[in-house]
Structure formats: C-alpha cells, structure tokens
Amino acid sequence: xxxxxxxxxxxxxxxxxxxxxxxxxxxxxxxxxxxxxxxxxxxxxxxxxxxxxxxxxxxxxxxxxxxxxxxxxxxxxxxxxxxxxxxxxxxxxxxxxxxxxxxxxxxxxxxxxxxxxxxxxxxxxxxxxxxxxxxxxxxxxxxxxxxxxxxxxxxxxxxxxxxxxxxxxxxxxxxxxxxxxxxxxxxxxxxxxxxxxxxxxxxxxxxxxxxxxxxxxxxxxxxxxxxxxxxxxxxxxxxxxxxxxxxxxxxxxxxxxxxxxxxxxxxxxxxxxxxxxxxxxxxxxxxxxxxxxxxxxxxxxxxxxxxxxxxxxxxxxxxxxxxxxxxxxxxxxxxxxxxxxxxxxxxxxxxxxxxxxxxxxxxxxxxxxxxxxxxxxxxxxxxxxxxxxxxxxxxxxxxxxxxxxxxxxxxxxxxxxxxxxxxxxxxxxxxxxxxxxxxxxxxxxxxxxxxxxxxxxxxxxxxxxxxxxxxxxxxxxxxxxxxxxxxxxxxxxxxxxxxxxxxxxxxxxxxxxxxxxxxxxxxxxxxxxxxxxxxxxxxxxxxxxxxxxxxxxxxxxxxxxxxxxxxxxxxxxxxxxxxxxxxxxxxxxxxxxxxxxxxxxxxxxxxxxxxxxxxxxxxxx
Amino acid sequence: xxxxxxxxxxxxxxxxxxxxxxxxxxxxxxxxxxxxxxxxxxxxxxxxxxxxxxxxxxxxxxxxxxxxxxxxxxxxxxxxxxxxxxxxxxxxxxxxxxxxxxxxxxxxxxxxxxxxxxxxxxxxxxxxxxxxxxxxxxxxxx
Lengths: 621, 142
Ligand code: SF4
Ligand code: SF4
Ligand code: SF4
What we know:
- The complex is a heterodimer.
- By secondary structure, chain A is an alpha+beta fold.
- In chain A, strand 4 and strand 5 (about 90-95) form a beta hairpin.
- The mean pLDDT of chain A is about 95.
- The model of chain B has no long low-confidence stretch (mean pLDDT about 95).
- Chain B is an alpha+beta fold.
- Chain B is built from 4 helices and 8 strands; from the N terminus they run E-H-E-E-H-E-E-H-E-E-H-E.
- Helices cover about 15% and strands about 20% of the residues of chain B.
- Chain B starts with a strand and ends with a strand.
- The interface of A and B includes residues 73, 222, 225 and 295 of A.
- One iron/sulfur cluster binds near residues 54 and 59 of chain B.
C-alpha cells in the first residue's frame, strides 16, 4: 500500500476531450517525491523534445506533494509545471492557499494537461470524477469574479487554479491564481494554460490521503507548535504577524531592495522617510486587516484588507496585503510614497493574473526608459510617466492590464520582450535568462547570480538559498566565491527536496530539521543520509536535463548588464562593484556533478538512478 | 456540551474554522484585534469554539493538525466522542418538521414538509447532528 499519496495521476487531452487515470507508482514517489520532481519526470518522458511552448503537445501539470492535505505544518503549497514562454525552457511555479490540499481531496495527486480545446473550458475534478466543462461564460473575466462564479456553480467547498485576462492573452508574465490572491507566479505559466483555452482547474472532494503513522505526524506538529507558541521559535511566529512586507525597511537598509529601477540605493535616491507610509506598521493604517493563512500553517503570514476608499478605486474587498516584492517594487523601485498605489497595483496584478514581480519590474523599467528617452510619451499612451507619480503609475498599470494602445503592445510581455521589440533599453533590464529579478538585489552576493543562472528556472530568489543566506553579511563574506560550491550544492539539493514535498519555505525554520521525519511519518519511506542528498540532486538533474535535451548550455541564461553591476552602483553596499561569477559557477557545477557546460556526466545519471531516459537521450544508449 | 479546543498547542491555523458548517468556531487574534467572548486569553492567534453554537458534528476534529479538539460535557469534563455506523429516520415516527434537514451539514436529508424525511446514506457523514435535533426522536443510530 502506498501511503502519503492518493496514488492517482490524471492525464487530460483537451484536443480530443478525453482523459486517463494512471496509478502513481511507489518508485516514482520515492525517487521524485512530488511537486516539480514528479512533474519534471513526467514532462521529460511524455512531452517530445523541442515542443513549442504553445503547441498542442506542450504539457502543463498541477502537482501536489506528500505534505499536501496530510495536515503537516507548512505543507500547503502546490506546483504548476510546464515550459516557460520567456525562456523556452523548463518552468515551475508554486503557490500556497488551499488548492494543493483540495486537489488531493478531489482524489488525485496531480493532473497533466495537453492539447488545445476549441472553446474555453474548465476542468472539474470532484471526488475522483472528471469533467471538462464549458467556460465560455468565464472567458475574459478577472480571477476573483471567476472564483465567485465557480463557487456558485459547483459549491462553496471548491478550490480553483485560474487564469485571468493575462493568461488568456498569452502574456509572458501571466501566472496562475488560486484562493483569490495566491499566485503560482513566475515564468509565464498562465500563458501556457491560456494557450490551451483552459480557464481553470476546479477541485473538490472529501477523499483523504492515507497516512502511514498519524500519531507520529501529530506528535511532530505538536513539537513544532510547542516551540512556536512557548519555546525557542516564538520569534518566528511574531514575524508572521507582519508578513514579508514587514522587512521592507530592513531590506532598504542593507541595500537589498531595488531603488529607482535598480540604479540607486536609499542613500542615493529614496531617503528612508519617503517610505514612512509603506513600512510596517503604517501599511495597515486605515484598512481593516485580517490574517490570511494557508492550509495548516502555524504562522499565517498573509493578510487581506477591507478598504473603505471614498474615491472608489480601491476594492472594498479582495485586496490582499502586498507581499514584500510588491511593497518594494511599487515604492522604492519606482520612487513612490503613496501606499494606496502599492495596494491598488498589486491588487490589479492578482485580478488580471500577472506575476507581480515581473509586472512591477516592467513598470520600473518603463520609468527609466521614459526618463532616458528610450520610450516616448506616445508609446506610453500619452501618459507622462514620471518617477513616483502615483496617478501615472496607476494609469500605466491599468493600460497594461487592459492591453490598451502602445502600452499593451509593448509592455505586457515583460521587460525582455519589450526591449527586444524596441531593439533598445537592454541596458535598463534587470534579468537573468529574461526573467526579472525579485526585489532582492543579486549584486549583494554573486551567489544570487550564480544560483540564478545555473537554475533550470533562472532568476528565482526562492531558489537561491545560499545567496539568500548571505544577505546583509559583510563584503568579504558576501562576495566570496571560493570553496562554496559544495555548500551551494547541498543547499540546492535540500531546496529541491523541500519544495517537492510542497513545503512552504518562507518561514519554515521551525521544521527545518524535521522535514525527513515528517516525510517518514506520512509515507513510511526511509532514506539513508546519502539517499537524501541524492533525492534532491535527482530532482535538480531531471529539471536540468529537460533543458539540456532542448539544447541549452551554460551561458544561455544571460545576465543583463545591470544585474551584474555594469555600470556599477555609485552608492551603498555594492558601490563600484561589477561581478564576474565564472569561478563560482565552475565550483557549483563541479559540486553538482555537471560538466563545465552544465551537462550531466553519464556517471552522474547512472549513479542517481531513475534517469534511464535521460541517459538514452544525452548519451545515445 | 460541545467540542472544545485545548489552546496549549493550538496555532490558530483556522482549519477548524473553515471546516465548521455552523459558524461555531471563532477567531482570536490579538495582532488584528480580534476577540471572542469567553475564549481563553492567549498572546497570539488561536481559535475558540463557541459552545452555544457548536452542534457537535465533529467535522473540525479531523482537520486539526495538532489533534486538540475534543468533546466535553456541561462541566467541561472530557466525554467520549460517539461513533455511529448507520443513521436513519423511522418513517412512521417522523412528522416532517424539517428540522433535521435544515441542520444537516452535508445536505443528506431530504423530504416534503409534513411527510416522512429520508437520509441519503451515500452523502451522510454519520455526524449525529440530526439525532440530537429531532423533537420526536425519529432519528435512530447504531
Ligand atoms: S463539532 Fe461541528 S459544530 Fe462544533 S465546532 Fe466542530 S465543526 Fe463546528
Ligand atoms: S485546527 Fe487545531 S490548531 Fe488549527 S486553529 Fe483549530 S484547534 Fe487550533
Ligand atoms: S448524521 Fe448524516 S444525515 Fe444526520 S446530520 Fe449528520 S450527515 Fe446529516
């Protein structure tokens, strides 16, 4: 008996309107855990190499992990896997809320979709039953409206992964939204869904995942709860009260938050008092805030706002407290001091289904391009887009959402697309592999850049554990590239494992040492210390091999000039620095058992096991 | 009599709050100035079951990640949670008052007013709420 999994994967072909349920084997579960681990293995095997991202053969998967619906603390996430319209390579994005748990209650560990439907549809998974339903009445609608309609249609107890107009319009910044304001954001995954005419995946049911040792699972949760409520992790819980935006001022002070489209620091262009209305606790004043909690989370770092806006622009309900990324991206990085603008534009990204990180970077890029004459006023629909002007920012954001005029044509696919389209403005990009950076400045540590470039999904701050851990350290420590390859590899492996369990690893330090115990309690699987490392490595290698088979090699995920400090900043902790990260990449590749082009050695694949198809493809056997 | 939360381990994850079909679970959250009358004082967020509203369906119990929700009697002493294999309505005894159908959290009971009501076994979660509600004791369990 397979514990910790529903044991079923659903495969849907939208071209033919057919589906098939396949068992999830114990071998697949043991080797690839869940989430994008299993997702990568399936897409590698089932999706032909060189498939165009919007072709019918292109596949899109929604995966839970062994923690989903188990009631393990911090286990509330799910993953969307596909190719990325931005990189043309592997993509995964993940999100919290309740969709992951509900997916399992609906009877499946995951659902994989290929084909293109003739008319808009949504998938309805209900207690093991599958339906492809008409979604013509939902097409064109914003995400929260769709969610409300779906609740009326199928029942309040449903959850749905939904695309907004951004996904329908195949925006490279389109994300998948669930639970009103949770987003599987990065890499343009919503466009793949849109290309299939799939408006939503709706899940519902009361099936339970079999737990190997329920008593042990409860005991682990109690141990963590005790530590967070009464013991050494009390502080983590307090931190959750303010959520990610609570760190905004601290991030400015260590020059981690972007300022003026990443061209300055707070000392240079955003005097600290400019953000007084935006830092905690001011960001909640005048709004009625309520805690938002993902499935079985002992922290609850989110919040929703109820707003009474006399001007009627801000939504009364449905706005969430912007996460740090939006908070910084819509204040210091655009030199804005108006809090309502931050909340409003963040709300728009959720409603229209845009990846907030890409969207806000596009705004700041447009600001700099306008200032430097790369974008004209005509190209901005006549809007005089000046630094820090709330009305202009809102107007451009609205036009991006509604695909209006030149703004719609130029800006709605993100910065890399826009610069390529114009044939200029590349010097103001802040990207790795065309993906806009999160609001943690990679110039703070070459490890951000290194981890961002060797990742099959480039430019992700949550996949840069070493870079993240060096934040705020002294210069020598932050900039050191020597001797850390193995540390980076170990952290990478742990990061892969943890995400594939579908853990949230935002504030998960209270369970950091217990993750494998949780897995054992839920699945009954045991692993030796070496096998543990291999699990994370195998998952990384499967994702990396997906790209290598496509022809990807080291250097293909290019750094924009600005992101490596070309030209260097004039103020702050990274003043005068241009990074060259070749040395770090060499050591990382060595420790990841890759050759210097990023291709896995044959021995690596043999040693990892479960990689036979990859060996056949890359080494012709 | 009602279900009760032991706040020693309650992290306020709201799983019980979301599961309760009767709105009996209330949120306590000092950070967001949310209070619930009668709730034990805690220094961070937790949940509280209002005994006046709890219908003892037990839906919250299975959701709780730390398993701290249990049944207590009027004096707060622990009580064994009842367990039913089957629940049915005796047609001859039922007067069709609709009370059970209105309270069933999963809409498993149907019927015409003033006629005998019926429980759909495939939907019934055997929580026993209808048992406690029926003025004629027409609902039976084994
Ligand atoms: S037992 Fe039922 S009615 Fe009482 S609090 Fe739990 S879910 Fe609500
Ligand atoms: S489910 Fe349990 S831990 Fe969560 S709020 Fe309710 S009683 Fe507390
Ligand atoms: S025992 Fe069954 S029929 Fe009665 S209230 Fe509960 S679920 Fe409904």
